[in-house]
Amino acid sequence: MTLQEIKALDQRYYMNTFGERQPVCFDHGCGVTLYDTDGRAYTDFFAGIATNSLGYAHPKVTATMVEQVNKVCHTSNLYYVEPQAKLAQLLVENTFADRVFFGNSGAEANEGCIKLACKYFYEKGEDRWEIISASNSFHGRTLATIAVTGQEKYQKPFRPLLPRGIVNVPFNDLEAIRAAVTPHTAAVMLEVIQAEGGVIVGTQDYIQGVRALCDELGILLIIDEVQTGMGRCGKLFAHELYGVTPDILSSAKALGNGMPIGAVLAKEEVAAAFHPGDHGSTFGGNALACAAGLAVLTTMLEENIPQKAGETGHYLLSILRRMAEGKTSVADVRGAGLLIGIALKEELKAADVVGKLLEKGFVVGTAAGNVLRLLPPLIIEKENCDALVAALADVL
Ligand SMILES: Cc1ncc(COP(=O)(O)O)c(C=O)c1O
Questions:
Q1: Distance 78 CA to ligand 1 centre (A)
Q2: Which of 105, 212, 245, 349: CA 20 to 30 A from 84?
Q3: Distance between terminal CA atoms of the chain?
Q4: Tens of pLDDT along 195-217?
């Protein structure tokens, strides 16, 4: 089909939640290159919103998935699932966590985190169910996760918000959290780097301070690593950059490299609060998604992908900053690893720059606050970065 034919079908039959999409339909990909329906090549600096971290048609991930499809995709959680058990083991062996639960998306993982925090205090006989989250954050699109997502544009049409007892406070402001704590507070929920919210990096003092405050008050720290995790910021999970560990963590996106999967990770004492029947999922943790996740995580660990992402990210950040010195339209360049934001001044719209770069064969995205967001596959090479920066300099 041509792009025009696909667009006509989409506009007639698909619910218009995405507005005017970028004028392209990607047909296939290989490594860091995507090809559209006309066969034109693009270098990908967005990875399907931080998802295709090992790039497209990754030999090992693809072969594992094909093998699993030929065996069985799904059996349900009424039965034992080998790839699920193995992926849980590998996650536990490489993180702070002792136990894992799999769902299908980031929002679903965050729902699981919130439920687990509440259930933990229910089990202890404490009346704690409030969650403190940050303004400008992004935690998903379900009714509970838009409540923790501290952005008016997502919350306004759905008021009154669910669930009860969610309060959004300014990010990077420890005293704001302290002031919001009540006898009913169960947890603080944060991204250590607010990605969708404009690539706002949490300061060391703040993230470490939040951990200490949670310990002091006996409440839980939930870290949302749906976007920052799985190597994106130079460590397997970005909280490692801060020398703190959460009590509960959500992962998704790059965990499946394109296969829908989400995960709740928790320490034993907390995880033990979930008893049979407290949580569940038909598809979550199915054999296909977990086989993909297992191939992804194994590859990332064997090939030191997080460390490489840190190094390439450092390089990309430095050449972007150098380029930005000569550009009056750039207000700031920031990020960690391969999660990078380029804040533009008002006279230039980030969405327009995205369109111009697409015309030049580069896929990039935006974030809140007129920010260009770069989230390439973690296997991106320095030459790709050089080419992107040259094209961006031209556009700016
Ligand atoms: C930090 C964070 N949490 C949660 C989500 C929601 O994930 P999903 O779209 O898979 O539900 C996102 C999606 O962008 C995200 O960036």
A1: 28
A2: 245
A3: 34
A4: 999 999 999 999 999 999 999 99
Is residue 224 annotated as a catalytic residue, yes or no? yes
Whole-number Å distance between alpha carbons of 265 and 366: 29
Protein residue with least CA distance to atom 4, ligand 1: 139
DSSP character at residue 165: S
CB of 139 closer than 6 A to ligand 1?
yes
Structural domain range at position 387:
3-58+304-395
Is a pLDDT exceeding 80 seen at residue 163? no
Q: Side-chain half-sphere of 219: how many Cα atoms within 13 Å?
A: 27
pLDDT digits over 255-298, tens only? Answer: 999 999 999 999 999 999 999 999 999 999 999 999 999 999 99
Are 43 and 32 spatial neighbours (Cβ–Cβ below 8 Å)?
Answer: yes
Q: Report pTM.
A: 0.97
Q: Let me know whether 38 and 187 are in one domain.
A: no
Residue 281 · residue 348 · CB < 8 Å = no
CA-CA distance, 316 to 310, in Å (whole number)?
A: 10
64 falls within a domain: no
Are 362 and 377 a contacting pair, CB within 8 Å? Answer: no
Residue 252 in contact with ligand 1 by CB distance below 6 A = yes
SS3 217: helix
* Domain end point (choices 254, 273, 302): 302
